[in-house]
């Protein structure tokens, strides 16, 4: 997927599926495999003229135009993004099924953060977190800088006076 995005980032106009595959060094099948997922997050737009990233081209004609993914224009939530994404990867009978490991994330009460445990969905959901400006549903790691501090109880310092 990274090659596809990179190629679209450097394109100056829409690319046909074949041109995109050739420039990205991937097969046309790879383009088709990722298309629905990239469209679900509104990262790409596809029409009869080809594929384009949902950002302005780096040309003088579009440089000042505001072309951004819809998820950045609207008040999208992580649940909204997970909902649209699961709709693209799950068959209808699994979507929203309380007994399905993925679909149950949408069942009441919805909890899209549970999808982070699934290796197929996790990278896409992390992308949704970034696009929707949602705080990470996982606890962030605490990092301690420098040497460990040696401390004494305050009661031990009173004897030194």
TrEMBL record:
Residues 138-161 are annotated as: Disordered. InterPro entries: Cro/C1-type_HTH, WH-like_DNA-bd_sf, WH_DNA-bd_sf. It comes from the Archaea. Pfam families: HTH_24. Residues 152-161 have a biased composition (Polar residues). Gene3D superfamilies: Winged helix-like DNA-binding domain superfamily/Winged helix DNA-binding domain. This is Winged helix-turn-helix domain-containing protein. It comes from Natrinema soli.
């Amino acid at each position: 997927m990274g090659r596809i995005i990179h190629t679209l980032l450097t394109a100056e106009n829409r690319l046909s599926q074949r041109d995109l595959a050739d420039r990205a060094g991937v097969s046309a099948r790879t383009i088709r495999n990722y298309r629905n997922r990239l469209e679900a997050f509104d990262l790409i737009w596809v029409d009869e003229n080809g594929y384009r990233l949902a950002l302005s081209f780096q040309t003088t004609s579009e440089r000042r135009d505001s072309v951004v993914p819809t998820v950045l224009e609207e008040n999208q939530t992580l649940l909204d993004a997970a909902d649209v994404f699961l709709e693209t990867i799950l068959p209808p009978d699994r979507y929203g099924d309380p007994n399905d490991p993925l679909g149950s994330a949408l069942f009441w009460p919805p909890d899209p953060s549970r999808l982070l445990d699934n290796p197929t969905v996790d990278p896409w959901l992390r992308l949704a977190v970034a696009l929707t400006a949602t705080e990470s549903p996982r606890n962030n790691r605490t990092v301690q800088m420098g040497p460990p501090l040696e401390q004494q109880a305050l009661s031990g310092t009173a004897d030194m006076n």
